[in-house]
Amino acid sequence: MEEEKKEVEAGKPHGRSRRQQTRRQQTRPGEKKILFRAIGAAAAVLVLAAGAGIGYYFIQVGRYETAFLPNTEINGMDVSGKTVDAAKAAIEESLSGYELRVLARECPEEIITKEDIGLHSEFDGSLEDIINAQNPRDWVKYLRTSASHEIETMIVYDEEKLQEKIAGLSCMDPETMREPENAGVSEYQSDTKSYYVVPADPGTELIAANVERAVRDAVMNLESEVALEAHDCYTKPAVKEDDEGLLALVSELNTYVGAAVTYTFGEKNEVLDGDTIHTWLSVDGQTVVLDESQAAAYVKELAGTYDTAYKAKTLKTTYGDTVTISKGNYGWRINQAAESAAVAAIVKAGEQQTREPEYIQKGASRGENDYGNTYVEINLTAQHLFFYKDGELVVESDFVSGNEARGWATPAGAYPLTYKQRNAVLKGENYRTPVFYWMPFNGGIGLHDANWRGTFGGSIYKTSGSHGCINLPPSVAKTIYEGISAGDPVLCYHLSGTESKKSSKPAASKPAATTAAPAPTTAPAMTDPAATAPAPAPEETAPVGPSVEVPPGETGGPSAAPNPAEESSPQETPVSPAETSPADSGTPEGPTAPSVTAGGDKESFGPGFVDQVPEETQAPIGPGM
Fold it and tell me: How high is the pLDDT of residue 79?
């Protein structure tokens, strides 16, 4: 404590001097001597190591005066650190028992021996030249790099023998070689409804020049084997499985065969899918070609199976008997051109859909019959008809059909109602006869009111019938007109045993006094006969014919076919009807009545036909249609 006071009084910092004293006390005189000795020893070691390293370096320099530098290769052989004599000995040793294994596709392994090609060593001083050209002082640098030399005279073989040996390899036999095949498109796979890419076949066709080069290089480098495939010795396919064009082609094919159309025909279905579509396809280069004629043939086959127009129909008549109606164009009829185009578009788009085909004409139903339960049943033998709507009898009536004696008999057959029209004018050569209810169903033949007749039915038609039309009492014509629609079937048939010679008068009223038939060129007044008494009936022996209805031929006979355009757009002739009803008929409003051609048998196409049977449906129709 006294010493500390003295130090404070003397102005010495107490703490600092103590630390300094502590440091001085850490190294004592004996310890300094030991430290100096350790440093000296380390320095001596470093000097010795440096000397040893320098010595080693120069020792190696001396060594590489006569030896190859590190990482030196000659013709692929490692000769690092070897003298020329040692390198020659290694070469001789490698030649002893040397053989080369040749590996080829789909061929057994083959051997080329030293003796096969006259292989031996031969030195011309090239090894010595390499030794003399190298700098031994660079040996350290070659620890991190390498030197490669190629010399011509080290090993030698007989060129002719080598070529003969290569030519004799089994893999080089042209008879065993198989040319490569390009990748391509598979056959259609029905289980997956698709195509796939068939991989290329590389084949086994060798390129002789490349084989010789590969074998020669392997021999010169004393390699133990050579794989010809690794040395580009085979011809290659031009198209491989990853070819973009090929992949796009397969994708397009799969789009086409991926399409599916389910057709509905009532309770029956027909499925068009890849199993059929693939037969329509071909490939031109890398383009898919759809044979649309085959699509059309498919639709034609559908039409042959499911079209009912121009085909025979059976009808259970109101009389209880069943008749076969073999003629007429009523029924289903596919629009083959439109549907073929639709099918082609669906296939190209790869769509899947359920659809009805495009129709030119439809029937009422599918199933046992195609005419449904709304129709006009016309018994030409009995001269009596029935109008059923939704299966319920609406009206029945006697009628007068075409004049058999004049060759204008109304033909049997099943026909769709073409249209219906109020206040039409039936015309012929020099004659124009107005009617209130015009309902054509077979060209110029139709149902209409005939207020000039006082009696209907019986045998009137045989000598005093119409020119083919069905003449009806006005009230009956009105009832049918109000209940029937365009397209509804009109079924005309003959049924033996139902003949009747007795005619009947309209139920509405008794006939009035006999009046003359209309003047040849003057249309009668258009007073609705359904609301007035009918005109008196002519005698059965008095011909009605030309003064009321005339055939469409210019000469007044039934040979000329009516003009379809005239039927659908009848001419309008100035007539002053007592009653017009545009709302009922759908005809233009005005004071005139349309003029139409009525009546007539068309023997050129079969009785009652105005249009020839379409070519596409002629085959399945059968005789007489």
Answer: 87
Domain count, the chain: 2
Q: How far apart are CA 262 and CA 542, in angstroms?
A: 60
Average pLDDT for residues 265-278, to the nearest whole number? Answer: 96
Q: Which domain holds residue 569?
A: 375-621
Q: Tell me the pLDDT tens digit for each residue of 350-371.
A: 999 999 999 999 999 998 899 9
| CATH number of the domain encompassing residue 269 | 3.10.20.800
**353 lies in the same domain as 451:** no
State whether the Cα torsion 50-51-54-55 is positive or negative: negative
**416 lies in the same domain as 269:** no
Instruction: Report the alpha-carbon distance of residue 190 to residue 455 in Å, rounded.
Output: 69
Query: Which long-range CB contacts under 8 A does 158-165 form with residues at least 24 apart?
Result: 158/117, 158/118, 161/116, 161/117, 161/118, 162/112, 162/117, 162/212, 162/215, 162/216, 162/219, 163/212, 165/112, 165/116, 165/117
Q: Identify the weakest region by mean pLDDT among 88-97, 417-426, 441-450, 452-461.
A: 88-97
pLDDT at residue number 503: 83
347 and 425 housed in the same domain: no
- Is 256 part of a structural domain of the chain? yes
CA angle 549, 555, 561 (to 5 degrees): 75
Cα torsion angle, 108, 109, 112, 113, sign: negative
In angstroms, rounded to a whole number, what is the distance separating the alpha carbons of residues 451 and 448?
Answer: 10
| Banded model confidence at residue 585, pLDDT cuts 50, 70, 90 | very low
pLDDT the model gives residue 286: 87
By DSSP bridging, strand 384-389 and strand 287-290 are unpaired
In degrees and rounded to multiples of 5, residue 134 shows phi and psi of -85, 155
- What distance in Å separates the CA atoms of residue 461 and residue 447, rounded to the nearest whole number? 15
pLDDT (tens digit, 9 = 90+) per residue, 509-525?
333 333 333 333 333 33
CA–CA distances in Å: residue 453 to residues 178, 506, 535: 94, 9, 6
Q: Is residue 84 part of a domain?
A: no
Say if 57 falls within a structural domain: no
Give the Cα separation of 394 and 474 in Å (integer).
15
